[in-house]
Structure formats: C-alpha cells, structure tokens
Amino acid sequence: MASRSSVLARPPAFRGIGRSILLTLPMALWSLLMFMPSFQHAGRDRHISALLVILFMTTLFFLMMRTGETYRWRRIFFVAMGFLFPFGFIAALVAERGTMSIPISRMVSGDTPFCFMVTPSLLLPAAFARTIIFPGSILPTASNPHSIAAMIGVWFAMTLILGKAWCSYACFFGGIEEGFAAFPKRRRLHRFITRFGAYLRLIPWAILVFVVLVSAAIFEPVYCMWLCPFKAVTEFPAVRNVETAIQMGIFVALFAGLVVVLPLLTKKRTQCGFFCPFGAFQSLFNKINLFEIRFNREKCVDCTLCQTSCPTMALSKESIREGKTLLNCMKCGACVDVCKKDAAVWHLKGTAVAVKPERARLLFLYGAWALATMMGGSILANSVATMVHWLPWK
Amino acid sequence: MRSRILPILAYTGAGLMLLVTVCVPFVLFQVFTNGVAHAGLHIDAVYSGGTVARTIQRDGYRILVYQPVQPRLLERIEPFVQIVFEPADALPAHVSDEIDLDGDGHPDVRVSFNLSADPNAPLRGDVTALNATYISLTNVGGESFSRMFVRTGNKIVVRVPMKKDAVSR
Amino acid sequence: MAALSLSASAGEALVLGLATGPVCLATCGPVVVPWMLVQPQGVRGHSRQLFLFLAARLAGYLVFACAVWLVGSAIPHALPHALPHASTGRSWLMGGIQLLLAAALVVYAAGWPHRRCAAAKTAGALVQIGETSFPKRSGALALGFLTGINLCPPFLVAGVRAAQLAHLSAALLFFVCFFAGTAIWFFPFLSLGFLKRTPEVVTVARMVALLLACWYGFSGISILIERTFHG
C-alpha cells in the first residue's frame, strides 16, 4: 500500500492542464453518453446523481492525466463504490421487503439477484448437466433485472478487457477493504505478512479449486452458501434453522476479520489477496490480457518499496528480479506510483518494456475507466440518488 | 522481423480492445446475454421446482403438479414434489384439496391452508399424506427447499417431501 | 441359457456403470484431483497411482458385492423391500465413511510421513516454497477403498440387482462390470500428470485436500448428529 509521504514526494504536475483536459475530453463525453438516459427519463434525484457522478469520474480521470498517477485517484472511486454499493443495495432491500434477509420464497421464484462471485462454482454443473446452481432467473424479469444471463454477459465482456484489473475497477466489494486499509498510518503484522505471504496468496487458489469441486459434487453454490464475507453487507438467506445460523455467523466473522480488522492492521486487501476465489479465477484472465506492469531492471535498485506498497502481495523478490509481477496482479498502479526510480512501468505486451510506458498506461486507462464509469458509475449514481431522495430539506 | 510485427500487433490489439469497450454497453452486452440465454441452461430443480407434470383444473384456479425432484448423491435435501396453486387471488380463503401427485388416479396428499387477504402475510399450511411415499407436514411455512408453503407473486408454492428411495437424479 | 443370462447381467451392469459414471466423477473428483496433484508429475506415475486407486476401489466394490449377495441369499426377496428402511443404516455408514475419508485426506495430503528431512521443516509450514515434497505413501489404496464403499444410490441399485443373482460368482462378475463402466470415466484424470508440479501447485493441492477434509468431516458429523437426534 503506497504511503501518503511517498506518494506526495512525487512532483505534483506531470502534464500540462491543456493537454490533461484534452486527454480527459473523451472520458467526459463517454460519461455523458452513459448517463444520458438518466437525464432523458428519470426524476430530479436521478438528474442530480448523474451530474455528480459525471463530475466525479471526469475529475478523477483529469487528475490521473494531470499528475501521472493512477493509484490514489482510482482508489477514491473504488472506495466510494465499495461503501456506497452496500448502502444503496441495503436501502433498496429495506424499502422493498423491510429486511436484508432473502426469504426462501424469493429463492424459489427466481428473484435472487445474480452476483458474479458465484461464476466459478457454476461452470462444472453448467458444462456437464446444463444446470445453473443458483436461485435466480436466466432472463431478466420485472422483479429481477439482474438476471444470470445479463450479469454473466457483462462480466465476460468486462473481463476480456480488464483481466484481473476487474478487482481494481469493477468489483463492488473490494473498495470496502481498500478503504479500511487506507485509514491507518502504520502497518502492523508486517513481519507475519512478509514471512507467510508466499503461502497466504496461494489460499485463494485453494479455495477456488475447493469451491469448484465441491459445488460440482453437491450441486450447491458452496461459496455463496458458506464462505462469502459480503453477505454481511448485502443479502443473505433468512436464518431459519441451525445451519443458516451457522452460515450467518461465518459470513459476519469473515467480513469482520478479512474485510475490516486485517486491512486495518496490515494495510493490505486481505480478503482480496488472501481469500477471494473469484480473484484467483480472474487472475487466469491476466494470461490473455494485453496490459501488465513490468520492471525495468536497469533502473530498479531493489528497494522493495513496490513490494511493500502492493495491496495483494502480487510482487515477490523473485518476480521483481525477473522484471514482472505475479499472476494475481490487479493493475491498481500502486507500485508504479510509489517507485522513485520509475522502474515500475505500465506495459503493453508485445512492445518493449519501459519504452513509452505512458502510452500503455493511457491505452489501459481509457478502457478501464470507461468500464468503471459504465458499471461503477451507475452503482454510484443509484446510491447517490437514494441519498438525495432521503434529504430532509428537499 | 518479429520485433517489428509484435508492436504493431500489440497496438492493434489495444485499439481493438478500446473498440470492444465502446461496444460493450451498446452491442456486446446484449450479444453475450443472448448467448448465455440460448445456451440451453436451466435453473436447478431444487430452486425452480422442476418441470410441470400435469395440470388440475379447479373452480377459478388451477393446480400445477411438478415432476418429483430427487437429490443427487451428496445433495443435502429430501426428495420432494412441488405443487403450485395459481392464481392466488382467485383462491378461496380456506383451501383443502386432495391431489393425485403420481397420476395413478388416486389422491396422494391433502393440502390445506388459509389464505390471508394481505399478500405479505406469512403463509403456513398442512399436508396430510394419503400415500406412504409422501411425508405429512404440519403448520409449515418456508422451512427448507423440500418442505414449504410460500407465496411468490400470485402463486402459492407447496413442496411435499418424499421418503428417500434408492433412485437418484 | 445360464451363459446367456450371465452375459445379459454383465451387459446390464456395464451399462449401469457407464450411465452413473458422471455421478462417480462428481463425487470422487473432489478426492482424486487434489490427491493426484500432490503426486510427482508424470503420466506414467499417475497411471500407476490411478491403477492402485481403482484397484482398491474395485476391492471395495467386491467386498460390498459379497455382503449384499450373502444377505440376499439369506433372506430371499427381502432386500428390495428392505431398501427403503436401509436408509438409516446407510446414513450411519456414510457418515462414518466420510469421517474416515476426511482423516485419510489430512494424513496423505498433509504429507505425513513424507520423505523430507525433519530438520528442514519450517514451523507451521505445510511445505517449503522452494522445494517440492511428496508424501511417502501415496494414499491410493486407502482413498480408493473408501470411495469404493461410499454407498451411492446407483451403487445400491447395483447391489440389489447383484443380490438377486443365483451365484456369488455372478454377483462378483456383475460388480466387476459395473466397476468397469464407472472406471472408464476416471481416465481423464490422467491428464493431471501433465501439469507441472511447481511448489505452488503442490501447496495449493495440499490446501485443497485439507479444505476437503474439513468439508467431509463437517458432512460426516452432520449426518451422524442428524441420525442420533432424528433417528
């Protein structure tokens, strides 16, 4: 995780204002295009929220262009999404049914909104038995627009472009722990993380294989039913017996431990880096993604500032020596921004390393930020509209 | 040669990625959604209740009897049969119906429940097994996927558990 | 006539095994995949291990075949009717088998005993990153036998059918053919032999095996508790 002092030590201006505005214009236009329907059809709450989100996303992108930094501006968006998504989601649930718990009737009627994190568990039963082991509906309905086909469709499209950068630009849960990780000034448990980091970052892979195999064996989405920490801040099966009470206990314990306490102690995204099987699954798509972060060995002085700053331990001494990150790099840009020697650079596969890295960064950011505006921006707009709706002085 | 072609391919690929990005909300999202929708997939019968086996017409409403749902080897549910009464707003205040579930002409269960005018009121009901294959239920609501009386929209969904046998899905 | 009847039974058993093979794959897969990934790389080595696994599985099948045939011959015509009431006993057995499976996974996947100098162990580490350690005993026989006697419904159907045959040898042949039908589905696991055994792969496989041990342990205990309190 980049410390405040190391980030502020860089020169404040990387690019002139004029050029920064020029580079931001396409993103501003894209944002307007994405939120045009809100201005055409929806009410005043939606107009205000859309305008705020357009300004928010455009400003952050401008700052990325102006300062040449990615991580801290992306983090502002990501943390905002991480905290506002549950807020808007829970508000909608409470307004609709007065509780966060999913009654079994909704699971039976196919009204459970689909979450992308269950995707790996679905693959084997879908491939071998053409069965979706999730209580949703395949096509969108009036009561459930977040259908399985729609959510898988958007996930697939975004993953083709982002790879594991999904975890930095699209995941609407990762921002929660990134926010908690940003609070403390000092990291604790640093020795533990350093010593056991090599094992800890393999745990998501083990959980992924376990979840895929057992879900196929028992035809149940094991991760959703037993291991998802974010059930604690979205919705969960209603507690109606001992088993569901145990499940709820696990959800709350995992959320408190992995998403709140450990990020506060370690300044790392501990759930993402050391637990999330979906993150491991997304890592596979880094193999085919065009963008990556590389290290110029001629400039690198092995200060390991990048390794310390990485939120998910995606860097090891061996990988830096080889000039690259590990497979679980989520392209957040922390290591690039913190490197004082400009050794860590954005890279487009197939081109020379450290030759025009800013071009690679721009090509990546245009795609990533466009998708972030499309999906994350609409999440922000929904939540902001809910807040505006509740304003007492309206 | 390779050192000249690779960067060209790389930038071409990056450009295509940007094009794909622009197409996502307008074209690709719908294409992928349709692709998944037409992949011949279905929701697991534990959640959907399976397929309808027969329809029984009553006065003003109908009863849909589904195919029995048997658990797979390690699935942790009892086998059950789903019965759906629809439309719920056409049902009398008290329903007591003897239903033939296996299509042999003899009633297998008697389903009884009281319907409140408030669609959000919790629903509970009883099932009396007239056939040893099925298990009776008393004052059941949404207990589990194999034992339930619930209202979903304008339907009443009842699931009657069956005794376990040797045949699985 | 007897030969025709025997070949008809054998054919029936083979078809039953082929048809239920995917069920075996789904239920044995969680055991086989991490266990095989803990073995050294190489298709030849994997073939040997898979052969041992399947042989032990066959032994389990034959033990069961003997048992059901003896019961069936002692109480003729009773077994099909007794089957619905056998679910209680089957649950006790399944609960026990799952606990044994959990214990076996812990022992063999965690690598006790393993051919590595004890002094090289780091405190609390399952395996050193930087060296690859394989278990001394592969666990093929234990895991194969335990999965072989796991009483799945197709297995019970085969059991009922075998119990109705005139001779013990016919029952054994029935189960050999049933086994052959299911065993064919296991050959794709040999492809795991091609996967490079980096220390990370082996570590992940051990972690998976431990997670599965927890799962089987939880499942076995749940079954036993349910049987204890609900009968």
Which features would summarize this protein structure in a list?
heterotrimer; B: 169 residues; alpha+beta; 2 domains; 6-stranded antiparallel β-sheet; 4-stranded antiparallel β-sheet; 24% helix; elongated; C: 231 residues; mainly alpha; 8 helices; 71% helix; 0% strand; globular
Explain this structure to me?
The complex is a heterotrimer of chains A (394), B (169) and C (231). Helices cover 62% and strands 4% of the residues of chain A. In chain A, the strands form 2 sheets. A two-stranded parallel ribbon of chain A has the order 1-3. Chain A has helices at residues 4-8, 17-40, 44-67, 71-97, 104-108, 119-129, 148-162, 166-169, 174-182, 190-200, 203-218, 222-227, 242-266, 270-274, 277-284, 305-309, 317-322, 334-338, 357-390, and strands spanning 101-102, 131-132, 236-237, 291-295, 344-348. With 394 residues, chain A is mostly helical. Chain A folds into 3 domains: 11-99 and 357-389, no CATH class; 107-287, no CATH class; 290-355, Alpha-Beta Plaits, CATH 3.30.70.20. Chain B has 2 domains: 1-41, no CATH class; 45-161, no CATH class. Chain B is of the alpha+beta class. Chain B has 2 helices and 11 strands, in the order αβαββββββββββ. In chain B, strand 7 and strand 8 (137-140) form a beta hairpin. Chain B is elongated, with a radius of gyration of 25 Å. Chain B has a 6-stranded antiparallel beta sheet, with no helix packed on it. A 4-stranded antiparallel beta sheet of chain B has the order 5-6-7-8, with no helix packed on it. Helices cover 24% and strands 34% of the residues of chain B. The N and C termini of chain B lie far apart (58 Å). Chain C is mainly alpha-helical and 231 residues long. In chain C, 71% of the residues lie in helices and 0% in strands. Chain C starts with a helix and ends with a helix. Mean pLDDT of chain C is 73; it is low at 112-132. At the A-B interface, helix 5, strand 2, helix 7 and helix 19 of A face helix 1, strand 1, helix 2, strand 9 and strand 10 of B. Strand 2 of chain A pairs parallel with strand 1 of chain B, so a sheet runs across the interface.
